[in-house]
Amino acid sequence: MDKTIYDNISLLAEYDFQIGGAQRMLSVVAKRMNKPVYVLANRKNPSKIWDVTPILEIPPTKIVFSLVVDSYKLQIIPKKKQIKFCHSGTSLENFVDNPMAKDIPWLTHRERVYKFWKRKGFNIDLIPKGYIPYDKTLIEDTPAKNDQGVFTSRICSAKSPELAIKLFQNLGIPLYFAGNCEFRDYVESLNKNVSENIIFVQPDEGTGVRLETRDEILRKSKILVHCSFGGMHDYLEYSILDGLIFNCVPLCITSEPEQFLIVEEKRIGKVVKNVEEAKKALFYLLNNYESYVKRSQEFINLFIKDQGVLWQRWESKLEEVCSKLI
To answer: What distances in angstroms separate CA 262 from CA 127, 234, 240, 294, one per listed residue?
Structure first.
C-alpha cells in the first residue's frame, strides 16, 4: 500500500465491546497494519478488543476505517472521511432507510453481502476473495481425541445453539458449549432440561470462557458443531477455522447449505439442512474421522500459507477505496 495512504488511516472500533468475529478480525487487521485501535467510549480503560488494547484518542489522520459495525447507531466522526466494514451482512439492516449510511463507503469480504446490499443502493465494495484474515499459524498437536462435540460460537439466538442441543440431546455423546455467553438469561434458558451429556462450560472471564479452557476442549474433541439459520455469511467462520486448527471436523447445520459450500467441496466436514440429517452425518464423521482430518489438515495448512496473499488483496482494495477519499 502507498505509504501516504497508509499513514492517513486510523483504525476504529465503534463501540467498547470485546466479543465476536468482527472484533477478532479488527485485532488481526491491527496487527497486520501495525496500527493501534481506537474506540468511541466514555471510560478511561476500555475493554480489550479480542487481544488488542484500545486507546481513546483518534490521531490526526484523514480517514477512519472502522471494522466493528453491528446493531448500533450510525457513528459519524466529524471532520473525517470514513470507510465502514460490513462483517456479517446484517449490520446494514439497521441503516437501510438512512440516506447518510448509503453514501458512506462500505467494504466487505463476503460476495453474497456485497451483491445483496449493492442492489439495495449502498456504496459498498468487495475485497475479492477476501475470505477471512486469520491469526493462527500452526496446527495444534492433539494426541488424545474423544468422540465428543464442541460448540465455540457465541451463545446467542443468532448462532442457533438450540440445533446443536437437539442433535446431541439424549444421544450419549458429549457436547460442550464453550462459547462466550454475555446473554446470560438466554444461556440459562437453554441449559434447562438438557440431558447429562450436554455441558455448558461456565465462563471464567466475566461472560467469556478463557481461550486456554476453550482450546483444551477443542484439543480433545473430534467434532466442531457450527449452526446457522441462514443469512449472508459465506466461506468459513472463525469458529470453524479454530476447529480445523485443533483437528476438529466441522459439522454445519444451516438452512442454506451454500453458506459453507467449501466444507463439502474440500471434503473436510459435513453441511446439512436439519437435525435429522445432522445425526446421520455425526456418526458418519466419527466413523470416518481419520480420513476427514487428514484432508482438513491439508486445507488449513494451505489456508495459513496463503494468508500473505490474502492480505495483499485486502491492502489493494483498501488503497483503491482510500485513494478516492484523499
So the answer is: 18, 9, 12, 16
